[in-house]
Batch of 2 targets.
Target 1
Amino acid sequence: MTVLVDLILGVVTSIGGFVEVGSISTAAQAGSEFGFQLLWAIAAATIMVAMLAEMSGRLAAVSRRSIAAAVRERFGIHFQYIPLGAELLIDVLLLAAEVGGAAIAVKLLTGIGFQWWILPIGLLVWLVLWCCGFSLIEYGLGLLGLVTLSFVVSAWWLKPDVSDLARALVPTLPQHDHVRYAFLAVSILGATVSPYLLNFYSSGTIEEQMTEKELWVNRVTAYMGMCFGGVVSMGVLVTSAMVLGPRHITVDSYEQAALMFVPVFHQWAVVLFALSLGIGCFGAAVEVTLNAGYAFSQALGWPWGANKPRRDATRFVAAFTLVLALGVAIAVVGFDPLRLTMIALALTVVIMPLVVLPFLVLMNDPTYVRRHTNGPIGNGLLAVITVLAALLAIVVIPLEVMGG
Amino acid sequence: MSPAVSRPCWRLSPVLVVALALTSAACARQDARLEQHKDKFESLGETTAAICEAWLGGDVSGTYTRTALEQTFMLVEQERSALAASPDTLLDPRGAALSQASERLSRLIASLAHQVQGANAAAVRQLLTDIPIRGSAGQP
């Protein structure tokens, strides 16, 4: 019974925690500019992230090590500096974007400039991490995040043509603006397959003390949670395509994106959009900060854990506090959060090979995963992601310049 | 025709071809740039209309409407700066027309924000008919 409750909570919180600043902004832009045409990118990225999450959970449940800890042990600390440094850089940028996104959500409701809300939101993130254990953080934020299902409700309400949706699941070339199309496809990939998510997922598996016997729970949670989460992202794209697309409104700000809810939710439109954006971004900010603490501590061999008394993990607390302070400092400077998000997502793709390649080795090492090594499909996927990410890493910066 | 006469023409033609190619590429770039600016202004004009229509319909609050109009105003100004950054674009009659229309859009958004603050629905409705640049959805 407990396992069943854990399973349901795991799936539900995965759905609630899926959508954040990156997925909302990329899907809204993609929908408004290219209609349903980039649905395939969300579908492909969702399948990738579900498989990666399942693998990282499997690694953690069997080896009792998170990805960062296993990479350090297997490849040594000198190798670890590169992916760790890259991941922390992305974490800081993503954190700034998430805090900025949450601040804009408050601005939408209050009319007070978003810069005023950044410090209070940063403080609130720190307080949540200081006061709450892992389960409360994960389940609490995940359940609140279910408000993002309003994107699915709006898409369903707008009655899109099912055959058009099905056709959009097959990649096609756009009629116009090929560079922008490619940039958005890469950004969708970066928004969905975030490196922080993998280490966070594996660390969470250890925090929840999942064992080898519960691998099926990990599998169901990863696949069902991520796939339903992907449906929420598709809801953003479909709503944007059906409301903003016909009016030729391209999304350059979250204020514009909020308009996509008006035909469906009327007086509740801005409130629901702000809650979806705010809770999604706040939840992601907490997760990114926590993951930075995890990655730092695991790579350097310090005690870590959101369930540990804070006095027993002081360096872990110091690590996440430092990263949070850096992220908040960048957000305070006043970068446009939407622009910052797109840059962070492009850089995410650049560092992807550094994260995925060692993971590929670990998932084939019986010392870590015993008899649960990857099959040909899992290895094929990791190899494809590594090659694809390496190729994209070469083109993503020019794409960012020309298409962003 | 003697070879001495024909040679210069023969030598000139590749230069001419390269010059024509460069000119046509520059024109194409200019056209594409103008088209991008036009699309952006149309999107912002349409956004302005959508925000105000939602306010007139009672779907969004005055607070959101003012915030969204201020943000749209900033985006219009950013785009105007980008348009003015290239003198060649402004020398083009289409670019000059776009620049004038975008200036009118800026002023109109400022007026709309002011009228929304005063809750003057009639004035907002009147101003909405004067949006100088809109997407095809807003064209009569």
Target 2
Amino acid sequence: MKKYKFKIKNLDCANCANELENTLKKLDTIENVSISFMMQRLSFECIEENKEKAVESIKNVIKKAEPDVVIEEI
Amino acid sequence: MNQKNNKRLIKIIVSFLLVVISYLCRFDQELYNNILYVIAYLIVGFDIVLKAVKNIFRGKIFDENFLMTVATLGAFCIGELEEAVAVMLFYQVGELFQSYAVDKSRKSVANLMDIRPDYANVCREEETLRVDPDEVNVGEIILVKPGEKIPLDGVVVEGESMLNTKSLTGEAIPRKVTVNDEVLSGCINNDGILRIKVRKEFEESTVSKILDLVENASSRKSKSENFISRFAKYYTPIVVIIAILLAVIPSFVIKDAVFSDWLYRALSFLVVSCPCALVISIPLSFFGGIGAASKMGVLIKGSNYLEALASSEIIVCDKTGTLTEGVFKVQKIEATLCSDDDLLRYASYAESFSNHPISLSLKQAYDKEINEKLVTETEEISGKGVKAVVNGKTVLVGNEKLMEQYNIKFQKSNEIGTIVYVAINNEFAGMILIADKIKEDSYKAINLFKSNHIEKIVMLTGDRENISKDVADTLHLDEYHAELLPQDKVSWVEKLMVQKLPNRKLIFVGDGINDAPVLALSDIGVAMGGLGSDAAIEAADIVIMTDELSKIASSIKISKKTMRIVRENIVFAIAVKIGVLVLSAFGIASMWAAVFADVGVSVLAIINALRVLRIKE
């Protein structure tokens, strides 16, 4: 398990952040997902080999729920 | 203010002016007024309607945009044009304010932690290049000019300066550094020019570690945050369902019920059902609390720890380095034959060839050049002390056993600590007490703990019984346990964890070295003197950058204030919302009150949350 951190942009409201976090929690590929609305951070853990796949599935979820939001690895 | 907010502000102003015009100039035909209202509505609310429509296709029906759209369009349908525009207008004002407040608090916390260096001046091949701190390798020399931040951890190889460590430690007094001193990234160079040999890459540097810690702090959420997001999850759907029932059922049940009246009440419900006011103010408060703590040099790794601090009951401390300074110093000199200064001089001279901790403490206290030519016939007597001839006089420096070996009549001292007896020419000349000193700050800290409802302060130490008892008595601690091995500390903390009330917390404070198991075991593990100690930063939940215990008391204070604001916001927001829901169900509160319950509460909660940032020590 490795921890990854992303900057999450254009997320307008705190409740949207909560809802997005709840949706991401349902993904099997990643664990300990957390979105900090105040720091504009998305962090999660996953197995290193699965990273690409995990990011892909996160992006899919975001595309559906909050199309304006973009994430960038830091 | 960013571009998005500027645009929003202009829309609000234009739309507001149109409403005023329409209100003041009553046209002959109502149609003109209505057209003005529709234009005003579209200017201020088109974005929201558009988002709402998009969201419906994505299956998101309970979001704010949708609720506001339904409420305002509903108001249009029943002929309440003014209210429809006003609701949308107020909603946008609230959103604007919210976005502004979030921006502001993000910025002010970012300023607190404004320690990230933008560049490094690295000296390569007789040239000074300005590069990204990332690109500097270990072993390279960097140049730091006055006013610049030190970009990487290293050792000074040339120059002398005063360093401002305020952004790291909260300490206002600058620190002097000179050749061979270690310097940490994030400090600001006040006056001189420094050449520094880099010891750690940027990733590993203090500044990166601290930034990483602070930036990730809010990903560990507190119970209050989890509560409010669970609450929001159920609140909105429930209110919406009640709104639908409210619109439909009365028309069937109550005789002469006017459908549009009940619809109006139902629409007010929809306005109140937005959860954002509640949701935003809680993380904002914690964010402010963590920011306020880091301003004074206390790094808290998560909102959950800030929350836990407020309910701490037992504080367990390590002794050496935590309550005491952790360095052995000459505390007392009692000379019988000569002056105190002379006694110290003889002792220092006699010990000058030794590297024993005691001789180091003596030399440090003497603090003058030692003319080694005056010292001859030095002889170390193992486990007892030193014999030497200083300036023609035979000097014995050591413990009781040394005095007994040479049959010297001496006054036995009852002081706590290491006692060094000195004899000159076989005659007892006095004693020097070397001991660890209790930090000045510890007295203040213990008092503050007691006045902050800490029920029990316990000291656990590996040190000897008599020394520990002395420290515990002087500081009026409630309990102490001495001569412990690391595993004994673990079992004591386990015992104490059982003693406390179930919803209260135990704090363990140590210097972060060899404390890892106890730090992990306790509810809140605090490491002191975190500056420069990676192990401490890793293992602890809270890191105090300086070595002041009283910072924990200040953090508890911040924590309590944060929690009070959080509770105020939760109670206030829920109470107002429920109040307005009840009133509008009976037709007493208008949609205006509903807008206040949404936007007004959110604005007030945010203003309340921003108070945390202003907490001073």
